Amino acid sequence: MPEITANGITIHYDEYGPADAEPVLLIMGLGAQMILWPMELVEALAGHGFRVIRHDNRDIGLSHKFDGAKAPGVVRHALMRRIGLRPRVPYTLADMAEDSAGVLDGLGIESAHVVGGSMGGMIAQHLAARHPEKVRSLTSIFSTTGNPKLPKSRREAIKALTQRPASLDEDVLVEHGKSVARTIGSPGFPAPEERLEARTRALVQRSVYLQGPVRQMAAIIADGDRSNMLGRIEAPTLVLHGEDDPLIPVAHGHATAAAIPNARIRTIPGWGHDVPLELVERLAEEIARHARAATAAAS
């Protein structure tokens, strides 16, 4: 698999579609390897005529690991933030945005249509605010502004995301991953058991690194409320959000759209915190239409 040295670390990536086509950069979320962007979505976007690039964020998948770097636990970190203290974290979401910028630079791409999901949406927000020249359009998928006054995640979703597997046995890890996926997934579009099994086992066999999500979560908490920063984003922005997302409720999507000048939002009933096969064509069409409109407006 190809890799790039970006922002001083090694980032693994892949790409599909014509090399001379307009690029679309996909940025995944917390503890999520790049292959959680379904190949069906990648192929659909390539079929719309785009060069589609995915990459593993730092500390996950096959990208650089920050072994030994200490991060405060979620509870301690949240308590410190509540009393006005800012604990030190190994890296920030802004650092992760620089990784994505470095991937584009390494591929010789001056600017791209940027699509971020969940934490990847937060990273994409930073990229658009800090490097407006690199972002032709922004699509923020089931993400948030970080405003602490917005509705909280459902308790079962947080528990599923933060609970560690009982062991590192492959079958145990697969069952744990399937349980997480079912808990935060789309009630209106439940994944078939065979597909869920195959996808989760592929993730486990590709990479298991439990320390990375702890540091990534610390980066999220440390980032705080991005609402003011979002007001500086110039890129045409589309917000996509599920109306039945148990992890990041749909109110976060509306807040994101409200914070970014001239942003549009599309919400989908029955959609949770995943990318169901049934929604792939619709999501690809929404992203492609938005990207084409941004290109037309710029020209």
Describe the 3D structure.
There is one protein chain. This protein is of the alpha/beta class. The chain has one domain: Rossmann fold (3-Layer(aba) Sandwich). It has 11 helices and 8 strands. Strands 1-2-4-3-5-6-7-8 form an 8-stranded mixed β-sheet, sandwiched between helices. Helix 5 packs antiparallel against helix 6 and helix 6 crosses helix 7. The longest helix is centred in the last third of the chain and has 19 residues. It is globular. The relative contact order is 0.17. The mean pLDDT is 95.
Give a brief outline of the structure.
It comes from Erythrobacter westpacificensis. The protein has helices at 39-47, 74-82, 93-106, 119-130, 155-162, 170-184, 193-206, 211-223, 227-230, 250-259, 280-298, and strands at 3-6, 9-16, 22-27, 50-55, 112-117, 135-141, 237-242, 264-268.
Features:
about 300 residues, alpha/beta, Rossmann fold, 8-stranded mixed β-sheet, 8 strands, about 40% helix
SSE blueprint:
Layout: E1 3-6, E2 9-16, E3 22-27, H1 39-47, E4 50-55, H2 74-82, H3 93-106, E5 112-117, H4 119-130, E6 135-141, H5 155-162, H6 170-184, H7 193-206, H8 211-223, H9 227-230, E7 237-242, H10 250-259, E8 264-268, H11 280-298
Parallel strand pairs: 3-4, 3-5, 5-6, 6-7, 7-8
Antiparallel strand pairs: 1-2, 2-4
Helix pairs in contact: 1-11, 2-8, 3-4, 5-6, 6-7
The percentage of residues in β strands lies in 15-25%
CATH topology descriptor: Rossmann fold
Number of domains: 1
Helical stretch tally:
11
Total beta strand runs: 8
**CATH homologous superfamily assignment:** Alpha/Beta hydrolase fold, catalytic domain
Please state the structural category: alpha/beta
Helix content: 40-55%
State the low-pLDDT regions, or none: none
Protein name: Alpha/beta hydrolase
Pfam families: Abhydrolase_1
Keywords: Hydrolase
GO molecular function: hydrolase activity
